[in-house]
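Go through this one:
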Amino acid sequence: MADPALSRRQVLRGASLGAGALVLGLTVRGVSVVAATGAAPASAAFAPDAFIRLAGDGNVTLVMPQTEMGQGIYTALAMLIAEELDVALEAVKLEEAPADDALYGNPIFKVQATGGSTSVRGYWPVMRKAGASARAMLIAAAARQWRVPAAECRTEPGEVVHQPSGRRLAYGALAAQAAREPVPADPPLKSPETFRLIGRSQRRLDTAHKVDGSLRYGIDAMPEGVRFASLACAPVVGGKVVRVDDRPAKALPGVQQVIVLDDMVAVVAETSWAAMRALAALDITWNDGPNATLGSADLWADLDKASQAEAHVALDTGAAAKLSGDGVIEAHYALPLLAHAPMEPMNCTVHLTSGKCEVWVGTQVMTMTQRAAAQEAGLSPEQVTVHNHLIGGGFGRRLEVDGVRKAVRIAKHVDGPVKVVWSREEDVARAPYRSVYGAWLKARIANGKVEAWSHRVVGPSVVARWLPPAYDGKIDSDAVDGAAETPYDMPALLVDWVRHEPRGVYTAFWRGVGPNMNVFATESFVDRVAREAGQDPLAFRRSLIGKHQRARAVLDLAAQKAGWGTPLPAGAGRGINLQYVFGTYLCTVAEVVVAEDGTVAVKRLTTAVDCGSPVNPDGIVSQIQGGMVFGLSAALYGQITLANGRTQESNFHDYRVVRIDEMPQIEVHIVPSAEAPGGIGEPGTVTVQGALNNAIYAATGIQLSRMPVDSSLLSKSAWR
């Protein structure tokens, strides 16, 4: 990997993107790099597309369009390029792409964003085609130099070989000549049986640099002359600053400025510690505004009331007429507000000068960040340079640009660069949250079989705000994801959605997005219906699987590996969660023990996954494990509560995550597949709640309708 700071600066200077390289027209969506950058052709290097740079010394650079936040995308996308270009993985250096939707927009979102488990499934064809095009052009250049048919040439890592004569030419020696070859419209891709890298576990390219500390995150940005700011925002949404007594803060050493805006106060100091101390010394009086009396009970009451409102139908195959009268089972499930709480504190560094703005940040949304900074600074996006960095935990939090906006507002009052760092308490209390959600389900059973099924989802539309072109005003596809498309073939299905925006909070995507809610509700209700039908949950699910044979494979494999049906002691239980989300089939069996006081110990999570062609198997296992830790923390402990409009939780002592001694044994089994890859960053999070809830149900006969687990409902007297 290249020096990340140096390489990013080189790229972000703009001219360096294409300077000295012949840049041709192949990009994500056919947009010419020449047209977009004004790059001038040259002969010393080879740049067949927006992603690949091959220098005369043989060095290969991948201009990375996606942000690394621990999911391993630096390695997985590099593998796709290295495979088709036919170079060693270690030979690929990485540079962060500059902000440019046209060149580097996510093929699924159409904007430059990293999220939704889309990186590998979105760039699978794009990166492979980019590498294959470059390889074909290098072969053509070698054949022209040798005066032989291209069909007589092949590649080995880093060089072209003339098969009949055994002559060889290194890629670097061919770079200038290859740059003059036409870009093939439809280059042949490698067949899976010839893969050297794809499907084999590879060491992550960023591990060594994380270990030696050379990788730089957003919080590491230190432009010359930088000062540090700590901030306090209105503790209630809609609140305003009334009065600030800053005398005690200004008396502290190192304090330079106290900036008072209408809804927040910031302290600028020589060090971040001085800024934090001074902020704590401020005496701020707030007007809490219209949400001053809001509490969590209000949000739940609003949600229940909204469920009676008119819904938009996402899918209807004739279920409504069959879901009344005898034989109909109903249930309601709900999930609370959740914060993201990434380990790297939220931060953003901004330097505003006349007609220019520079932003140093780790963001999942490069171009949204650029536009947000431009709006706050009163500049055009072209006047804003975003220096993106690695992210120490995103989970959807850094899909939001609220922090960038606040940092620019503060920077407008500071002479020189200023680094704004949020305390954990400030972020947990003022961040946009995963919203409260409700699900109302019905099913009609006859002769042990499902005749009709309905699922009403009640919740907000983050898509309508975050990506307006993707919302038609009727159905938010994310809101019903995991409800409208399931691994089951229901004979009659109705899925509808009531848009409900909660009061007094800002809402955002959270790892697992819509499927987190809908899979939890669906899988909990499947077990409920199975019990009403007198059937084993595994057998009942098998009876519902029709065309989804990949679902049957993961279901059977997970059940077999988990020892489904083998005896467990009293107070223990197993529960299944089967899902098809993000293009991936995944089944998890959870094994739990419920103590006499209702405490739940998760002993084992056994997962089988079919995510299509596995690119980096070790990365897949790691992503599922990490996602499960995240999901288990939320299922056991996660909730944000409000009182008088204020968030009651503040840090990891009262917004808990799973600790090492609480971690269950996790087994991940990958089902071989030749299908196109599915997403893998979020399915592990989605799978936990349903499996855990069903395991508790099996152990106690009590099915919880809301997460996190409420031990008081599971005490011995309730089920023994």
Remarks:
- Confidence is low (pLDDT under 50) at residues 1-43.
- The chain is about 30% helix and 25% strand.
- The two ends are 59 Å apart (CA to CA).
- Residues 551 and 585 are 6 Å apart (CA to CA).
